[in-house]
Every structure is written in C-alpha cells, then in structure tokens.
Design a protein that fits this description.
The protein is of the alpha/beta class. It is built from 11 helices and 14 strands. The structure holds adenosine-5'-diphosphate (ADP) and magnesium ion.
Length: 314
C-alpha cells in the first residue's frame, strides 16, 4: 500500500511517561508500527493499559511521543501539526466538556476554534445527524450520557475531517446505545470517513472493523483484515498417534485435512466452529486405526486471546 492510500502511518512509536513522586517511569508504547488505510474502519484492540489511548492521544497531538513518527493524511505531526490536526477529529475516552453551553453553542464554539467562517459552519446539520435537534438549545448538563457522547462525536466533526477517531466509544454504554453508535459509525464510513476506534471488546471490533490491530503491553501483537484474524483465531489442531504404523491417511480423515507427520502421527487442522473433536473421533472410529495417544492444540493467537481476556478480567 502506498503512503497516499494511508489515513494514518505510524512507525516505531514509543512513549515513556516520566516518573512522578509516587510512580516509576512507565513505558506505555515500545515501538509500534501501524498503517491505517483510507476509507477503512480500523480497530485498535487491547486490554486496559495496553497503550490504546496513549497512541490515540499522540496522534491527536495531546500527548508528546518519546520516539518514532506519525503521519496523519500525509502530514507529519512533527513538521505540520496544523494540517495533521485539520484532517482528524478525536472523540476522547473521557466525557468532559463545558456543561454550561447548549449543544448548538458548543458546536459553533469549536467551529470557531478551527477557524471555520460562519457561513461554512454545519452545526444544525451535525445536530441532526447526531439526533440532537430537540436538544439544540438545552443546557448540556441536562443531556443523558448517550446524548453527551453523541455531542462529543459531533464536536469532533465540526471541521469535516476525513478521519474520525473514537477512543472506547461504547465503554460503559448500554446495548441499545452501543447499536446506535455502531450504526452511526457505519453511516459516516459509507460517506467516506476513515474510522479508527479503540475497544477492549473483541466482539465490537469483529462486528465493525475491516481490519484489527491488537496491542498488549505497548506492543503490536498482530494486525490483520478481520476475516483473516478470525480464521486464525478459529484454528485448532488435533494430533492422533496410532498404535500401529500406518503409511497412508484413511480417506475419511484426509477428507477433513488429515496429514501424516514425520513421526507417523495424523495431524488435522480444523475450525471448532465447523467440526468438533468428537466428530473427528467418530470419523477415526470408522477406520481400523487404534489410538495410542491424542493431543489437541490451539493456535498461538488463541493463547494470546486467553491472556488478553485474563488481563481484562483482573
Ligand atoms: P489503554 O487506553 O489501552 O487502556 P493507556 O494508553 O491509557 O492504555 O495506558 C497505557 C499505560 O500507560 C498504562 O500502564 C497506564 O497506566 C500508563 N499511563 C497512561 N497515561 C499515563 C500518564 N499520564 N502518566 C503515567 N502513566 C500513564
Ligand atoms: Mg484507553
């Protein structure tokens, strides 16, 4: 992929937070590379503390990086932060804004900060898209959590950026609102906006994203198109050691991908979603093979996921 096709290009990104009185220095990012294609919905997946927000905040120009480079829509944040910022809208993880403005005033204020002339502002259009027309002139402090989150998305869109970054858009929101946010994200993407979202829910990344990068402890674990990632997640292996040496895999087993290895074991790679170990054993029993030993092994990625899930739960 050429650089012109990338929305965001990150190379060797490192971040060490300085020590303060109570804590040691924290190496939050240990050299991360990411290539986020234009037009995609890209998911940055990882457990709490993985370094997702740090990555996002560096892209947004809110946190200083320790090393590495970041380009936003072709603009290096070190050389041209102005243009980098003009091409991106960030919806932060924390909801914090001045609650004494109305949604309309807030959008106007931010459009003003971006230097957008009054006749080019789209505040009412954004309110409509965010389903906040009725709340246009209400005080923001009276909005529900879901409305506030929608307003944050709207606020990130006042300058019509080609990239929208959402940091944990659905953390702590109810199922209904989550569906709402997903739908809106899809609509924006269909209009051509590149979406980057962080999440610690695999399910969310699976549902929404074309491509998923997993980070853990400040390192990139894997980055794949979603179907490829799921394929790898779904793969298991069973190794059958026959009592008697065989020199050919019986047809019923070669039909499901069975192959002989050097030790004379039958090795079968399979997807648990399409066949179970029990079904495989049933097929073995249809042959005259006597089983001396049987092992099942999971792919490495699944181990990674187990670890990820463990970290999330603790
Ligand atoms: P995530 O968003 O994936 O949950 P973060 O990027 O927020 O992860 O945090 C990554 C690591 O950096 C964590 O160990 C976190 O405690 C630490 N960290 C984040 N922000 C700061 C900060 N301002 N000062 C010191 N450490 C921080
Ligand atoms: Mg975070």
């Amino acid at each position: 992929m050429t650089d012109q096709e990338l929305a965001i290009k990150i190379r060797g990104l490192k971040k060490t937070y300085a020590a303060d009185g109570a804590s040691k220095p924290k190496e939050a990012l240990k050299g991360v590379d990411l290539s986020i294609p234009r037009g995609s919905i890209f998911g940055l997946l990882g457990p709490n503390g993985a370094g997702k927000s740090t990555t996002i905040n560096i892209i947004a120009g809110i946190v200083d990086k320790t090393a590495g480079s970041v380009e936003v829509w072709g603009f290096d944040i070190d050389k041209d932060i102005r243009n980098a910022k003009a091409n991106i809208g960030i919806v932060p993880q924390e909801i914090n804004f001045d609650v004494y403005f109305t949604p309309y005033e807030m959008l106007e204020l931010y459009a003003g900060l971006y230097g957008i002339p009054k006749n080019e502002r789209r505040s009412d259009e954004i309110l409509e898209a965010m389903r906040l027309v009725e709340q246009r002139d209400a005080y923001t402090r009276f909005l529900s959590g879901g409305m506030k989150r929608r307003l944050l998305v709207g606020k990130a869109m006042v300058h019509n950026p080609p990239i929208l970054v959402l940091d944990e858009p659905t953390a702590g929101v109810d199922v209904e609102l989550r569906q709402h946010i997903w739908q809106y994200v899809r609509e924006l993407n269909e209009k051509g906006v590149t979406i980057v979202l962080t999440t610690h829910y695999l399910e969310e990344a699976e549902e929404l994203c074309d491509e998923i990068a997993i980070i853990n402890h400040g390192e990139l674990v894997i980055c794949e198109k979603t179907p490829n990632l799921l394929k790898q997640l779904d793969e298991k292996m069973v190794v059958i050691t026959p009592v008697n040496v065989i020199n050919k895999v019986p047809q019923v087993l070669s039909d499901i991908g069975g192959k002989l290895n050097e030790e004379g074991d039958i090795v079968i790679h399979f997807s648990p979603s399409s066949i179970t170990v029990g079904e495989i054993l049933k097929k073995v029993s249809e042959t005259d093979i006597e089983i001396a030993d049987l092992k099942t092994e999971e792919s490495d990625l699944e181990d990674i996921f187990l670890q990820l899930t463990k970290t999330i739960e603790t």
